[in-house]
Amino acid sequence: MRDSRIERLGEVLVDYSTRVAEGELVVIDAHGAAAPLVREVYKNVLRAGGLPLVRLRLEELNDTLLSEGSDEQIDWVNPSSWDIVEGADVLIGLEAYTNTKRLSNVEPARQARLGRAHKAVSDRFLERAAAGELRWVGTVLPTNAAAQDARRSLSEYEDFVYGAGFLDRDDPVAEWRAFGEELRRVSGFLSERGQLRVVGDDTDLKLDCTGRTWIAAAGDVNFPDGEVFTGPIETSVEGTIRFTYPASFHGREVQDVRLRFEGGEVVEATARRGESFLREMIAMDDGARRVGEFAFGMNEAVAEFTGHPLFDEKIGGTVHLALGKSYPETGGRNESGLHWDLVCDLRARSEVYADGELVYRDGKFLGGVIG
Amino acid sequence: MTDPRVERLAELLVGYSLGVQAGQLVRIDGSSEAAPLIVAAHRAALRRGAHAYAQVSLDGIAELHVDRATEEQLTHVSQVERSEMERLDGLLTIWSESNTRSFTRAEPDRQGRYIAARRELSSIRGERMARGEMTWCGTLYPTEAHAQDAEMSLREYEDFVYRACHVAEGDDPAVHWKSVAADLDARARELSSVRELRIVGPDTDLRLLVEGRTWLAAKGERNMPDGEVFTSPVEKGTEGTIRYALPAIFNGREVEDVRLRFEGGRVTAAEASHGGEYLSALLDMDGGSRILGEVAFGLNYEIDRFTRNILFDEKIGGTMHLALGSAFKSAGGENVSGLHWDMICDLRADGEVYADGELVWRAGAFTTPAPGSTRSDAR
């Protein structure tokens, strides 16, 4: 059955998120199960005058590579990935897993190896994006697999996903523009501050963002969206943080992660479940022990944890930090094959201080502080 | 459950047809309908030490493109695709339609320009293959749509396809195809010394000059299934009449009961019981479309029926096919045309072929085994 929300999503991704223009090479990188959305995006790219190129992924091929491939095969990077990263004007990523846990039994070291192998390509991608040479957006099409992770029926999950993208509203693009204004007020405020201190349950973390840029993410890179983020000074992170929500990475789940930082580096890492995987990921390379991103999630239409980082990190009233690679446009300089977002709920018993001033309490910026 | 025949086919395609070797760059093209064969071929290529990936097409995208693209979009071929074709060591194309008639209502003009633009990629492929720089094989993964064209259930059609590829059971398929190849090569060498062929059958008496032309064996390297020997006849040397009992299909459209008269190599009279106008239009396409570009013997006796798919039909054991239009340079052919229309002539019931006056083929088989053949099932 046709879902008009998929049609609206196709329009929003092309017209609002990536603003496709005539003659631009638009690569649509999608899982096979995203087919209905691929068709909608394709139609809209044609209408906008772009030159669409579809790259469809079969999830099973990665299973084979990771379970049976030699080191040399895992290390191999398809030259076409370079052609796309260098040649695309716009990249639209459409995720639709049919099984989110398919890589659970693959050796973490092999996954880490694959990540390292593709680091140069993803670095170049982020570099072109930061330089404004390439626009990209990533989104998720609801599947039963993702719904299962979110412990919802598919139709409930569709309501959640499309609700988070304001696609159930009359004019999603206008809603995103208005929300973008709000996010930019916050990022503007934070860019003028340096020291942050986050206090919550089992959490007291200090970081310094002096000179770094805070960016308002309003649906033009991730969709849905709704966060402000930066890359803190790499050596500045001190203290402890406890992540209330389970953290998934490449289909592996880690629960109740607690990290202690000294001089910007993780010096202690524990988890109630998946601790060895956590340690393995942190040991991937030198940058994997440092924070590449720190952000406030501000999308009130995402109220509940669902186990998917795209949504969880946007939950209104949370913060997240990512271990590993930072986004160059923030001024962050951390290098790593890892970028793992971990989310911490601040909606109760929490405070955030900016340069010593209380600016945020129990999940909200204080009205008197930020316009 | 995985069909073990899919694994066997994948191994045959990657090992025998493409000859994939360690370190090579291999791409597998197919629609998402063909996922089981794509996955199996990818695994087979990885096991041989290759770097393999898939380019998966999505049903309906090409139709959408032809329907809605601007002229610039319609004929655009991305540099990404061009570079890829320049790099590949091996390419496997899996045809696997979910609807074989989805282009029926497309504007023929626009579809033509789309196909013509994309021919740039197959030209690169053809040139690189001719220089020995890459291998290519085209095959089919059974779907309901193909089964429907063949007037079979999917299960029956799967049996048909896997039997034709000789992966259904028993011996190593690669061993089978190597022995088929030896037979076909011997047959091709033997035919290359023939000056004139005469085909005699119901309403058929056709003489073809093949002197000086090279017969080639199609032995499972570029198509799977395969099994034919073919050449391009001398352009001015075809005389007489032929009647095609099986429908002649071009771009999905059928013409029934085609009868052609040749004089001095050219079709001078053409009739059909159905689709005569389409036949005339294609014959008038260009200067080469009334001249034969190919004559071939179909020798795959595991293909025993017409299924409306040229990959199989032209190899039906006991048939011949004669194509109007472009010839094969590698066979010594010179005819040039935008057309290459294979029409299949069923010689299984009562047909005879004479080579320089000597009877060499009767009732759907050569009268003598291929020189040096060791195959017990050789016909």
Please render the helix and strand layout as text.
The complex is a heterodimer of chains A (371) and B (379).
Chain A: H1 4-17, E1 25-31, H2 35-47, E2 51-57, H3 59-68, H4 71-75, H5 79-87, E3 90-95, H6 108-117, H7 119-130, E4 135-140, H8 144-149, H9 154-164, H10 172-191, E5 195-200, E6 203-208, E7 215-217, E8 222-223, E9 227-230, E10 238-242, E11 247-249, E12 252-254, E13 258-262, E14 265-270, H11 275-282, E15 291-297, H12 309-312, E16 318-324, E17 339-345, E18 351-354, E19 357-361, E20 364-365
Parallel strand pairs in A: 1-2, 1-3, 3-4, 4-8
Antiparallel strand pairs in A: 5-6, 5-18, 6-10, 7-9, 9-15, 10-13, 11-12, 13-14, 15-16, 16-17, 18-19, 19-20
Chain B: H1 4-17, E1 25-31, H2 35-47, E2 51-57, H3 61-68, H4 71-75, H5 79-87, E3 90-95, H6 108-130, E4 135-140, H7 144-149, H8 154-164, H9 173-191, E5 196-201, E6 204-209, E7 216-218, E8 223-224, E9 228-231, E10 239-244, E11 248-250, E12 253-255, E13 258-263, E14 266-271, H10 276-283, E15 292-298, H11 310-313, E16 319-325, E17 340-346, E18 352-355, E19 358-362, E20 365-366
Parallel strand pairs in B: 1-2, 1-3, 3-4, 4-8
Antiparallel strand pairs in B: 5-6, 5-18, 6-10, 7-9, 9-15, 10-13, 11-12, 13-14, 15-16, 16-17, 18-19, 19-20
Helix pairs in contact in B: 1-2, 1-9, 5-6
Provide a descriptive summary of the structure in words.
- The complex is a heterodimer of chains A (371) and B (379).
- Chain A has 12 helices and 20 strands.
- By secondary structure, chain A is an alpha+beta fold.
- Chain A has 2 domains: 4-141, Thermophilic metalloprotease (M29) (Thermophilic metalloprotease-like); 173-365, no CATH class.
- In chain A, the strands form 4 sheets. Chain A has an 8-stranded antiparallel sheet. A 5-stranded parallel sheet of chain A has the order 2-1-3-4-8, covered by helices on one side.
- In chain A, helix 1 packs across helix 2 (35-47) and helix 5 (79-87) packs parallel to helix 7 (119-130).
- Chain A is globular.
- Chain B is an alpha+beta fold and 379 residues long.
- Chain B contains 11 helices and 20 strands.
- Chain B has helices spanning 4-17, 35-47, 61-68, 71-75, 79-87, 108-130, 144-149, 154-164, 173-191, 276-283, 310-313; strands spanning 25-31, 51-57, 90-95, 135-140, 196-201, 204-209, 216-218, 223-224, 228-231, 239-244, 248-250, 253-255, 258-263, 266-271, 292-298, 319-325, 340-346, 352-355, 358-362, 365-366.
- Chain B has an 8-stranded antiparallel sheet, with helices on one face.
- In chain B, strand 1 (25-31), helix 2 (35-47) and strand 2 (51-57) form a beta-alpha-beta unit.
- In chain B, helix 1 (4-17) packs across helix 9 (173-191).
- Chain B is globular.
- The model of chain B has no long low-confidence stretch (mean pLDDT 94).
- Chain A binds chain B through residues 23, 25, 27, 32, 35, 38-39, 42-43, 46-47, 49, 51, 53-58, 60-61, 64-65, 68-70, 73, 76, 78-80, 83-84, 87, and chain B through 25, 32, 35, 38-39, 42-43, 46-47, 49, 51, 53-61, 64-65, 68-70, 72-73, 76, 78-81, 83-84, 87.
